[in-house]
Specification:
InterPro entries: DNA_primase/pol_bifunc_N. The protein has six helices and ten strands; from the N terminus they run αβββααββαββαβββα. By secondary structure, it is an alpha+beta fold.
Length: 220
């Protein structure tokens, strides 16, 4: 089904809590030292918002790479990021994984269950995003993609049995306040703060995540 967003008289893409995409991208590079790169964006076409890629049935409108060489385009320089978003201020903010962090991708229901368990266990969390397609991304130290399958096996879970994916080198996540077409904007479930600048290792949080995903799979 075609994803659209109603257009206001000013034809402006809504921003989450007043955050401007270019300023936020620069802040991620400057304050968190994350590599960033501009992705696709939403365009006004005959009274609706559509993805700049031109695909009417785009699965992630306005929230995917705009070019094939995105990995080489990504930068950790605030100056370069400012220059890139100056060319297209409405471009989504995408963060390559496998560099300063990997991300563990789980269903939203499992993610919130895991968050509650982690709080009770007093675990130190990194940033966590919640996407409009009901997924959550837990930021962990790089290298998680290689070790998570073995960690799951040690916990008694065949990796294929869980809806849990680790994003490492060659992948990316969309960062707040990037919008997914009409579905809404990516949000922080756990915002980046000074307290979570140092990311956890995947081994520290994989047990509550796998438990939550296991419960989720048994419900289906």
């Amino acid at each position: 089904m075609e994803e659209t967003i109603g257009v206001t008289s000013a034809a402006q893409i809504p921003k989450q809590r007043g955050e401007a995409l270019p300023d936020t991208a620069v802040r991620y590079a400057e304050e968190r030292h994350w590599d960033v790169f501009p992705g696709a964006w939403l365009e006004s076409v005959e009274g609706t918002w559509r993805c700049s890629c031109g695909e009417a049935a785009c699965p992630a409108p306005g929230a995917h790479p705009a070019r094939d060489d995105w990995a080489t385009q990504a930068t950790g320089s605030a100056t370069v990021a400012r220059r890139m978003w100056a060319k297209q201020p409405n471009a989504s903010i995408l963060l390559p994984t496998g560099r300063t962090f990997d991300a563990i991708d789980v269903p939203e229901t499992a993610g919130f269950l895991a968050l509650a368990r982690m709080e009770r266990m007093e675990l130190t969390l990194g940033p966590v995003t919640c996407t409009p397609d009901r997924r959550m991304h837990f930021f962990v130290l790089p290298g998680a993609a290689a070790k998570v399958p073995d960690l799951l096996r040690k916990l008694g879970w065949p990796p294929a049995a869980l809806d849990l994916v680790t994003l490492g080198e060659g992948s990316y996540v969309a960062a707040p306040p990037t919008r997914f077409g009409a579905s809404g904007a990516v949000q922080w479930a756990c915002r980046p703060t000074a307290a979570n600048r140092w990311l956890p290792d995947a081994e520290e949080i994989i047990s509550p995540l796998s438990y939550a995903c296991g419960r989720e799979s048994r419900r289906k």
